[in-house]
Amino acid sequence: MKKFKIVSIFTLALMMFGIGCSEDFLKPEPLSFYEPSKTFTNPESLNSALIACLRNARLDVYGDTPPFLNENIFSEVSVEGTTDKTGPLFDMPAQLTPDANLAPGNDWTRLGWFWTEAFNRIKYANTVISRIETPQWTSEAQKNNMLGKAYIHRARVYYHLVHHFGDVPLILGEITSPALDFYSCSRESILLKCKKDLTFATQWVQTEAEGSPIGDVNKATAYHLLAQVNLALGDFDGAIAAADAVINDGWHKLMTTRFGIDKGNPAKDVTWDLHQDANKALPENRERIYLFTGSEALTEDGASLKIQIMRQAVPFWGGAGKIMTPSGVAGMSDAKLGSTVGKGKVEIDQVTKYGRGIGRNRATPYLQFDIWDDPKDQRHNNENWMTMEKLVYNHPNLKADNDPYYGKNLQKYGSDGGILCTDTIRSWYNWPYYKLYVADPTAAQAAGGYGDWYAYRLAETYLLRAEAYWWKGNIAAAAADVNAVRQRAGCDPYTTVDIGTILDERARELYYEEFRKVELTRMAYIFAKTGKSYNGKTYTLENFHTSNFWYDRVMEKNIFYRNQIRAPHYNYKIAPHVVLWPVPSQAINANSLGHINQNKGYPGAETNIPPKVWKDGPGEGIIE
């Protein structure tokens, strides 16, 4: 199988669209789309719009302060760790308002990315959908393969949008002139439209085995996403059927035997193999469903982006004076081997191996400790899981001064019981080394290079099916699917599971892969819709903004929010209404001829009107 290459076609896409990622919410950019400057007359030029979709999807995860970080900090697994700034989100109710700086390029929140760039991606997909009859196609299958891929991109964006912002405008066609008359459409009906489109995609889009390039969406992508959409709709049988189609397609399988570059190294295991960059795109890796290909992660001006995952999620262990030795002096250097630091050269290089983290994505005790219930778990063993105590004091000054702690393992406490780390939020926590390490040989301080990254893989499909079985009350089948993932990691099987067990397994298996906030919000809607209880509590859609599963789950498991732990500038806080983010007020105000609703709990919601509803019909259906 060849890996998807986009460089030359990507340039064509830029020429045709001639637009960038606007950060100016005073313009109606999120909802006003420009007419492409050239007509799409052949499949190659039309495909350039889908390449733009792929590019923007990668940008969720790649680059510095990627928008994806919000998926973790709005959940149980992580919190914002940038303690030296006042802009990042710590006190959600105070900081997260419709008038806050939510711009896509804001290095502090990036929530605006999920609004503005979502509608950019929808625009690209709609260009294909609206112009699908223009080119001369070699066959109906060729045309419908491309149409199905456009449907996948649009559906994936809307699946995220409705679990970030709730009811949003549903745009189903190419817009060739500025428009200011958009209306919110109900989340439920948007999901129904996504289901219809994805059902079409499952019938026509190619599989990877049939030649769909690695790095492109494919039939399994459509089925996996359809399982998520069906879950969101409460169609649990449909979710099981969609997951079955991937799990039983004869090509995909959980990787349970050693493979790839280190398969001959007995110190490693299949968990390590699965997450090494060099192995993700290998033909023998049959767990891969949809892969972000790092070498094609580009900005709109064509600049390459690194994933920088070590910078985001590894602690700031190398910061000047952050970690002291028991003798009371700075103990760490994050410079490379041979670099001159202080009184000498670095002889113990830890930055190349572990990365120069800055602790933006600060793992919680829930992720570090609470979920690990089997000492045999490969994902948490000595080879794959990194603890601070495995690092050593390596500052050259220590050697020059004959400090007895040079080369010794880190200690959190001194002999007097005092903490030897000056910022334990940002600079002292543990992390999954096997997953977060991406080689970055050209950087002076490794942050994470041009690596591939899983968007979807089969382990998540199993866990989606497990959840669907659980909602239906089939606990044995749910446990079997959780155990398929769990036993691959070397753990003993469960005899029973509940939604908490499934979420714990998702955290163990899918940390920094899954859109955790999206999935928790989706589950919150299901609890509210079905009336099923969590810890003895039930929920309703009418009171969703004041009482919901997302809030209760995060407060239960994330000690930072539960105890309102103090950071230098704020206390960590969340609130039930933050289950949905505020629609940027600039987007609402610019839409002067229509009405976009604000989410309840935020200023402006008092002017809401009933949302529009999509209904099935000829073509794209109708919105009324």
Short description:
Helices cover 38% and strands 5% of the residues. With 624 residues, it is mainly alpha-helical.
Properties at a glance:
single chain, 624 residues, mainly alpha, two-stranded antiparallel sheet, 5% strand
Walk me through what this model shows:
The chain has 624 residues and is mostly helical. The protein is 38% helix and 5% strand. It is built from 24 helices and twelve strands. It has helices at residues 7-17, 43-58, 69-73, 92-95, 113-130, 140-164, 187-204, 219-233, 236-247, 270-274, 277-280, 309-313, 351-354, 365-370, 396-400, 424-427, 433-436, 458-472, 475-488, 499-510, 516-530, 549-557, 559-562, 585-590; strands at 78-80, 168-169, 184-185, 288-292, 340-341, 344-345, 361-363, 385-386, 431-432, 453-457, 614-615, 622-623. Strands 1-7 form a two-stranded antiparallel ribbon. A hairpin with a 6-residue loop joins strand 11 and strand 12 (622-623). Helix 5 runs antiparallel to helix 6, helix 7 (187-204) runs antiparallel to helix 8 and helix 8 (219-233) runs antiparallel to helix 9 (236-247). It is globular, with a radius of gyration of 24 Å. The model is unreliable at 4-35 (pLDDT under 50).
